Backbone:
């Protein structure tokens, strides 16, 4: 084998190279901790050899309880391991694993649990430094919320965002609102501080100048109340809002376009004052006079109508009145009460007109005329099932006869009405009044029957005018003759 020589210069170069290769690399905290832990077992291994030497004379065949416990006692008392543990070096050796583990845990927690600042870059340009990714997430969500509901393609309005860790040192951190504003400023696809029109939550477009859009809405309300007085107010009856925020450029329109697209969805509420004048009715005050009949009445003071004004607040929605709220009222003229005197004494005086005597029916079976060679001075009233039906006084008066005689009328009643007229009710099944009784018009006096000269149940009714029997149908219209 041949031998190669190198020059002094070459050796120096090689030595220098070896120095570079053998130079210790600079270790960080984690690497130093791991190296320290690796060195700990060497001391433990040395002590283990000493322990094994103490037990070399003991075998499983010769092992007895006495030897076993004796060896333990001997080891416990004279073991060089425990003697070593009583020294400062031994204490350090025992505590080193615990301290190393604690340092490792704290180091890992520091690097994993501590928020590390991030730089936010858009288009290669740094726009902010933030505490953590939550700040960027919240700012991005804020922009998402601003653009949501605007019919905008977010892929064209969302900038490309990059984050990186800056060099350690003191840096000024940006808040969520700061990052949001900078994201908006560097995004050419959106417009900030524009006014978006929302009607019942629906987006109709954004105007670059929110004040112009608000002014256009005010004009619509002013036009709706142009025909009314100054007390009239108009508002939108539905939810109409101009929201100043960030909007995509493709949603920005002219104010006229926005208003025109939303006009048919506006609902306008109009309120206006209205005054109406009404008559105010008078009150009638009654005074009662026991000395006068109940048919008596007299006006002592004639009543007069008053007047009042009622003030309303009328409500219209889209031109249709929906409410009329009374605000107040005022009496412009007080009414005058009417005072009237009425009698309370029961009246049995004739009214001068006659009512039909049998409410059960108005059918006449035999009229006032010649019959069977003689004249029939009355009318016969009958109908199926009429027996026992009520007979009423055709007018008020005094009963002069109530009973039976041989005249052929059977049971009958005569009433004197005190004005030259009398009425007669014949062939009754029974009578309910007596001579001398006073009756009012409509009082029940008897029941329909067939007593006396009668061929069936009926009422024979006569009206006598100053002694002359007249046709009852003339005084009691509305009957029907069935023959």
Residues:
């Amino acid at each position: 084998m041949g031998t190669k020589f190198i020059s002094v210069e070459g050796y120096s170069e090689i030595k220098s190279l070896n120095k570079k290769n053998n130079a210790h690399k600079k270790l960080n905290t984690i690497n130093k901790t791991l190296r320290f832990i690796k060195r700990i077992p060497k001391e433990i291994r040395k002590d283990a050899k000493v322990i094994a030497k103490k037990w070399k004379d003991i075998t499983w065949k010769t092992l007895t309880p006495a030897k076993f416990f004796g060896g333990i006692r001997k080891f416990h008392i004279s073991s060089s391991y425990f003697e070593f543990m009583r020294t400062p070096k031994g204490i350090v050796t025992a505590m080193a694993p615990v301290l190393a583990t604690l340092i490792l845990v704290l180091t890992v927690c520091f690097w994993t649990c501590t928020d590390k600042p991030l730089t936010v870059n858009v288009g290669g340009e740094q726009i902010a430094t933030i505490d953590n990714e939550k700040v960027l997430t919240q700012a991005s969500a804020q922009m998402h919320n601003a653009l949501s509901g605007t019919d905008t393609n977010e892929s064209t309005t969302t900038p490309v965002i990059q984050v990186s860790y800056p060099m350690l040192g003191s840096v000024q951190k940006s808040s969520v609102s700061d990052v949001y504003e900078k994201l908006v400023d560097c995004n050419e696809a959106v417009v900030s501080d524009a006014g978006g029109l929302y009607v019942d939550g629906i987006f109709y477009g954004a105007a670059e100048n929110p004040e112009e859009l608000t002014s256009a809405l005010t004009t619509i309300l002013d036009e709706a109340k142009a025909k009314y007085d100054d007390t009239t107010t108009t508002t939108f009856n539905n939810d109409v809002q101009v929201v100043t925020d960030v909007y995509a450029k493709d949603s920005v329109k002219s104010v006229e376009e926005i208003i025109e697209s939303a006009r048919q969805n506006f609902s306008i509420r109009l309120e206006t004052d209205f005054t109406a004048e009404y008559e105010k009715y008078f009150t009638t005050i009654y005074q009662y006079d026991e000395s006068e009949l109940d048919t008596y009445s007299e006006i002592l003071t004639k009543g007069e109508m008053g007047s009042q004004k009622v003030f309303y607040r009328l409500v219209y929605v889209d031109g249709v009145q929906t409410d009329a709220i009374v605000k107040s009222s005022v009496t412009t003229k007080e009414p005058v009460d009417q005072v009237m005197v009425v009698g309370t004494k029961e009246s049995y005086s004739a009214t001068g007109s006659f009512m039909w005597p049998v409410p059960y029916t108005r059918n006449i079976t035999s009229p006032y005329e010649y019959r069977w060679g003689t004249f029939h001075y009355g009318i016969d009233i009958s109908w199926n099932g009429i027996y026992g039906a009520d007979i009423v006084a055709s007018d008020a008066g005094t009963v002069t006869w109530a009973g039976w005689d041989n005249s052929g009328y059977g049971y009958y009643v005569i009433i004197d009405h005190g004005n030259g007229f009398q009425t007669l009710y014949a062939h009754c099944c029974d009578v309910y009044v007596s001579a001398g009784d006073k009756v009012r018009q409509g009082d029940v006096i008897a029941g329909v029957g067939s007593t006396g000269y009668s061929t069936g149940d009926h009422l024979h009714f006569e009206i006598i005018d100053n002694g002359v029997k007249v046709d009852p149908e003339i005084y009691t219209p509305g009957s029907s003759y069935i023959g």
In short: The domain at 275-345 is CATH 2.20.230.10 (Resuscitation-promoting factor rpfb fold). The chain has a mean pLDDT of 78.
